[in-house]
Design brief:
Oligomer: single chain
Distance between the termini: 33 Å
Order of helices and strands: HEHHEHHHH
Number of strands: 2
CATH class: Mainly Alpha
CATH topology: Four Helix Bundle (Hemerythrin (Met), subunit A)
CATH superfamily: Nucleotidyltransferases  domain 2
Strand content: under 5%
Structural class: mainly alpha
Helix content: over 70%
Radius of gyration: 15 Å
Strand order of the largest sheet: 1-2
CATH architecture: Up-down Bundle
Shape: globular
Amino acid sequence: MSFEELLSRRAVERVTVTPREIAELLALSKRDIRAAEAMLGTDLDWAFAIAYNGVLQISIAYMNHLGYRPRGEGKHYNTFRFMEEALPEDAQMIRRLQKLRRKRNTTIYEQSGLVSEKEARDVIAFASRYYASIEAKLPRDITEQLPKEDA
């Protein structure tokens, strides 16, 4: 679905965001990925959900960089639909985002205990790779604003 279709369906809207605001989302994403790692010994469902949130935050940061944000119902779904359009060269990685979204919804809203330790570790590793991939696509005026411990 093209950016124009996403706009016309009101799945996304145009937005102006400063590099500093985008850098804050990057910092949140990194924080969530670290928190997910720390949660591994405590609650696997939450470790999965927190890693997912890290993926969501960096996806929104990339959207903001391009001048968009998700809108209306289904913001997570719309974020990942946008990313499909924005990064066709990363199609395999982006398709995984929708699978993670569905699993996260099930573990948060329907049933606990669904996430295995291997799955939680895999999602955290994926979140770290995804973060690095998206961060590498962002301009330096954004990434240079990250606090040194998050850079």
